[in-house]
Design a protein that fits this description.
Bound molecules: adenosine-5'-triphosphate
Number of strands: 27
Largest sheet: 8 strands, mixed
Low-confidence stretches: 176-182, 322-331, 528-535, 854-861
Helix content: 40-55%
Mean pLDDT: 83
Shape: elongated
Radius of gyration: 34 Å
Length: 861
């Protein structure tokens, strides 16, 4: 990495300058240049290290985990802790963590494109009999009783035994190293690199002019050559790339501390320009902690289910109050409820875990919906731990969110095969069913209260084959359950904050339209946020309706839709594309395998860290460690802050550079000989760009960061008046410094030392003033960026040393200033600070006038 610091173009220019000084015999400048080169390289190196460490720690945060069973206890371990012989559980969406032999693999399909290039998922089955320990020499495509690291489970699930890990796997053999490659430059970094190059060419041109002007004014060509080269270095913001990288990396680290883990650095800057957040409902807007609160059985009884979370304790009482109340220890005497409970426990892959250690709550392992059903079954007196042995499972059709149902088939004894299906009402209950009307009526009413409603049904058969033939056919309905899933704390406020920041929130859910609308309404999803008009039915579309009109037509009215209900993962891609066609910058959340294409297509793909599949995480730009919507909005604010800070640095760095160039060009015309010596220019550059530059990167968000619309995705970093401010600010700075120098020159004072000092201090004043683009520095307070204040103090100290310490006086050709001269320097040095403050004041006044006149400052999403 040291080498990288030395190859930087500017450093090369400096080294050439150093060589020139050696030939000229100007040892003082050689020493200064060598010092600057080393310091610059050191600074660049330490910043690159910091950025890299930040990214490393992010990578460990995003490291994949694996579900294993160790000593018959299910647990989650980090993939790197996996050992040969571990029993792993693979679900849909798992990226296989190691090469494994399958022990159980119902309906397992795996996409092995990673290894074989074949993109159609292949069927797998459990290994039969005892396999010998010899190395398996069959081609991968023939080994259908094994799964391989890096491949993805697309359907079914499996239990498998790890046979090889890491570099011993097939993937390891191919890749030898699957190390993450160096991240490519972000769009902003690329644009700034182009900008840097342009400035460099411009500066070289200007230096040529300075050289010629100086020589014509009678300066020694050698000295002028050196001055011109130093000026080039001063004018070029060589610390810009480092500041951008470190701002992005540290920003990503800050986001990680707030549960948003960035997987691609460009996402940090894109976040700031997001205009639409398309979010899942369950677990993101809501807590994803389901609890069954109501049930209905076909004997006409409505039940209230009490209890907290996943604890298998709580009374079930009939709504009429006629039936006896009971708890989970007393046997239940209502046959219909018993049948519903038994079906809930059988058609279920979840498990409940009693509180462990300092945990207070029961947890569901597996699907939260199924965890809630299990707790419900236990409350109704069902023996949830023994039931799997009483009715061994013979087969299953796993839940998938497109079909919205799940079926399991069991041996009921006495030659009877029992199939249980649960799922969305309109899928499971055919219109021809006698119970259809009453079931739909109750389900709709509950959905309108924001509940997730599932129906449970079953059928009996003589054989497994008959069950498979008919499992979707005539069924007995056991009843309905309603699950409540409360909204997450802070979501309503976050949606409102997003709205005020010009960001539209749309909800995409697999749930019933009424459930979706009810929750959307309560959270303020839709135009107007919680304070506005809210959602109405016209702002919702269902997945089937969307499919009927054809995804391509969505672009025509996508801006009118806030809620997508009964939508499939595949439709998320249509939604992203339709929004993008309107010019929106879209953040899209997802958790399943089928969400991956939409996550990849979205400008910011966001995967769920807790409940998301590995496939979704790998497709995402950002992973939410807490699955929480609020975190997305916080990350957007952080993205805006980081972008603003980079703009601040650009304004600050280029204003100073412009001023130095003007001083060098204009000074000879004022009769001042070589205005600044090379050593002085380099010192100014080092002082002002070093610490204060980095300190600007940690500036807090602008007070109005979330009160203005998103910046346009293609906005130039100089947009919104920045280049005008930079240019005018630089000229003003030059005018003040030259004014002081001219006055000092005419009155026989040490004009060069004064000019040198004023230029340094004026830049430090600018650093303090550009902390906000709009707000007055006095309202920001010192405490919010102590780092900047201290670095300014330190730089003033360093400048003092350059003027008063004898050795340094020689190095920088300075003369000690009298108290009076210091006073003049200090007073003059506040000029740019005031200049920027007045500019901001005028800007605020103008904005105030506009907003009182016609609400131009109000945000229109
Ligand atoms: P969201 O987008 O809000 O996170 P989702 O799209 O993940 O929700 P799904 O989990 O796909 O929603 O559920 C869609 C529908 O499928 C539910 O409304 C429910 O009717 C049914 N369903 C959900 N989970 C199960 C399950 N485990 N077994 C059977 N059916 C289920």
């Amino acid at each position: 990495m040291w080498v990288a610091q030395f190859t930087d173009t500017m450093i090369i220019v400096l080294m050439i300058a150093a060589i020139i000084t050696v030939f000229i015999g100007d040892h003082r400048d050689t020493a200064v240049i060598a010092g600057v080169v080393l310091l610059n390289a050191g600074l660049g190196f330490s910043q690159a290290r910091r950025a890299e460490r930040a990214m490393d720690s992010l990578r460990t945060l995003a490291a994949p985990t694996v579900n294993v069973i160790r000593g018959s206890t299910p647990m989650v371990v980090a993939q790197r802790e996996l050992v040969v012989g571990d029993v792993v559980v693979l679900d849909v969406g798992t990226v296989v963590p190691a090469d494994c032999r399958l022990v159980d693999a119902p309906n397992l399909r795996v996409n092995e494109a990673m290894l074989t290039g074949e993109s159609i998922p292949v069927e797998k089955r459990a290994a039969i009999g005892v396999l010998d320990a010899l190395p398996d020499r069959r081609p991968i495509s023939d080994r259908n009783d094994k799964v391989f690291m890096g491949t993805a489970v697309t359907s079914g699930r499996a239990v498998a035994i790890v046979e090889a890990i890491a570099m011993d796997t097939e993937l390891g053999g191919i890749a030898q190293s699957i190390d993450a490659q160096d991240a490519p430059a972000t769009p902003l970094q690329q644009r700034l690199a182009v900008l840097g190059r342009r400035i460099a060419y411009g500066a070289i041109g200007v230096c040529g002019v300075v050289f010629v002007v100086g020589v014509m004014a009678g300066e020694a060509p050698k000295r002028m050559l050196l001055a011109a080269v130093s000026l080039a270095v001063a004018a070029i913001p060589e610390s810009l790339p480092a500041v951008v990288t470190i701002s992005l990396a540290l920003g990503a680290q800050r986001m990680a501390a707030h549960h948003a883990i960035i997987r691609n650095l460009p996402a940090v800057e894109t976040l700031g320009s997001v205009t639409v957040i398309a979010t899942d409902k369950t677990g993101t807007l809501t807590q994803g902690r389901m609890v069954v609160t109501r049930a209905w059985t076909p004997n006409g009884t409505l039940w209230n289910v009490a209890g907290n979370g996943y604890a298998p304790e709580g009374n079930i009482t009939s709504r009429s109050g006629a039936s006896t109340s009971r708890d989970h220890q007393t046997p239940v005497d209502d046959d219909a409820l018993v049948a519903l409970a038994r079906a809930s426990a059988l058609c279920n892959d979840a498990a409940l875990q009693a509180p462990r250690g300092d945990q207070l709550d029961w947890e569901a392992i597996g699907d939260p919906t199924e965890g809630a059903l299990l707790a419900f079954a236990a409350k109704a007196g069902c023996d949830i731990s023994g039931i799997a042995n009483t009715y061994p499972r013979l087969g299953e059709v796993p839940f998938d969110s497109t079909r919205k149902a799940m079926t399991t088939v069991h041996d009921e004894g006495a030659g009877v095969v029992f199939a249980v299906t649960k799922g969305a009402v309109e899928v499971v209950v055919p219109a021809s069913s006698p119970a259809h009307a009453s079931v739909i009526e109750i389900a709709d009413a509950w959905a309108a209260d924001g509940m997730r409603v599932l129906v449970l049904s079953g059928s009996r058969h003589e054989s497994l084959a008959a069950a498979w033939d008919d499992h979707e056919g005539a069924r007995t309905i056991y009843g309905l359950v309603a699950l409540s899933d409360p909204a997450r704390e802070g979501v309503e406020a976050a949606i409102d904050a997003a709205h005020r920041a010009g960001i539209r929130t749309v909800m995409i859910t697999g749930d019933h339209p009424m459930t979706a609308l009810s929750i959307a309404r309560s959270l303020g999803v839709g135009v107007g946020g919680s304070t506005g008009s809210g959602s109405d039915d016209g702002r919702m579309i269902t997945g089937p309706a969307l499919a009927a009109e054809g995804g391509a037509h969505l672009a025509d009215h996508v801006e009118q839709i806030d809620v997508y209900a009964r939508a499939t993962s595949e439709q998320k891609l249509d939604i992203v594309e339709a929004w993008q066609a309107t010019g929106a910058v879209v953040a899209m959340t997802g958790d399943g395998v089928n969400d991956a294409p939409a996550l990849r297509r979205a400008d910011i793909g966001i995967a769920m860290g807790r409940n998301g599949t590995e496939v979704a995480k790998e497709a995402a730009d950002m992973v939410l460690a807490d699955d929480n919507f609020v975190t997305i909005v916080a990350a957007v604010e952080e993205g805006r802050r980081i972008y603003d800070n980079i703009r601040r640095f650009v304004q600050y760095g280029l204003t100073g550079g412009t001023a130095e160039v003007w001083v060098m060009i204009v000074a000879p015309f004022l009769g001042l000989p070589l205005a600044l010596l090379p050593a002085q220019i380099l010192f100014i550059n080092l002082l002002t760009h070093g610490l204060p530059g980095v300190a600007l990167g940690v500036e807090a968000a602008e007070p109005d960061a979330m009160a203005r619309p998103p910046r346009a995705a293609d906005e130039s970093i100089f947009g919104r008046g920045l280049w005008q401010r930079t240019l005018v600010g630089g000229m003003f700075m030059a005018a003040v410094s030259l004014g002081v120098a001219e006055w000092a020159y005419r009155s026989g004072r040490p004009w060069q030392t004064m000019l040198f000092s004023v230029l340094v201090l004026l830049q430090l004043g600018t650093a303090l003033a550009v902390r906000s683009e709009t707000a007055s520095t006095f309202t920001l307070g010192v405490a919010s960026n102590r780092f900047l204040v201290w670095s300014v103090v330190a730089m003033i100290g360093a400048q003092g040393a350059a003027v008063y310490v004898p050795g340094l006086q020689d190095l920088f050709a300075t003369t000690a200033l009298s108290l009076g001269d210091v006073a003049v320097v200090l007073i003059a040095s506040t000029a740019t600070f005031w200049f920027v403050e007045i500019d901001k004041l005028v800007g605020r006044r103008r904005a105030g006038r506009l907003s009182t006149r016609g609400g131009a400052a109000a945000v229109q999403p």
